[in-house]
Amino acid sequence: MCTVCGCGEPNEHKHEHSHGHHYGHGEAGAHVAGMEQSRLVSIEQDILSKNNRYADANRRYFNHNGVLCLNLVSSPGAGKTTLLSKTIAAIKNEVPVSVIEGDQQTDLDAARIREAGSKAVQINTGKGCHLDAHMIGHAIDDLKPASGSALFIENVGNLVCPAAFDLGEAAKVVILSVTEGSDKPLKYPDMFHAANLMIINKTDLLPYVDFDLDACCDFARRINPGIKILKLSATTGEGMDGWLNWIKANCEIARTGGYSQEQSS
To answer: Can you tell me where the transmembrane regions are (predicted)?
Structure first.
């Protein structure tokens, strides 16, 4: 059970009428047992408006200091930490890098990132399923990312809640691996709609798995026609140049203070 948003709240009940099992109907697009849709909408608006104020403060900090902030999101096991480690090793001599790591427990990923040569702060969310802008603000205070640097946020492995929370980032980057289903963009549309870039990782495994690359790209573009797509293998390095060049190009934009909320959405 998620104690932040209430999804999955235990709900044992018996009734005689029948209904379907799609709980995404109604103005809230979600279901919490015993709570009206209007109340759900009100709670969501309160939470997100407060989060957005913190996100705006983060964005002002990034723009003022020319920092490119990227929010990496995925399911668990898509290869975010490996991708980050290889990215840091490849660009750390050209672009200063720092990382905010999000996990429910442990600082194992932050340790891997420090071994790769980057400063890192670990945020443990406990039973929480996402990072919010207030958490990021405190992490920035500790990290103090250098002017003109790249700051990566490795969000908690989850394709649902992180879609709704603006952290002040320049872009959300959603990472999908070929060991997952190619229909994930259709199953989790909010995340693919919110993302600016989709990375399909672990392409070295394509000969061994049943993953339809073209269908996955088509599904993502049905949800978000403007989404950019890169295909790579962080393990072998195939396709990494496209990702590294994308980061460097966006660092140049960030150094001009050029990211507004509209540009990052």
So the answer is: none
C-beta of residue 99 within 8 angstroms of C-beta of residue 113: yes
Structure tokens at 248: 């460097």
CA 140/CA 95 separation, integer angstroms:
18
What's the whole-model pTM score? 0.88
Going by the DSSP 8-state scheme, the letter that residue 163 receives in this structure is G
Length of the chain: 265
Write the pLDDT tens digit of every residue in 178-226: 999 999 999 999 999 999 999 999 999 999 999 999 999 999 999 999 9
Is 183 strand, coil or helix? Answer: coil
**Which has the closest alpha carbon to 186: 156, 229, 215, 158?**
215
Task: Look up residue 203 and give its DSSP letter.
Answer: G
DSSP reduced 3-state for 153: strand
Domains of the chain by range and CATH?
A: 39-258 (3.40.50.300)
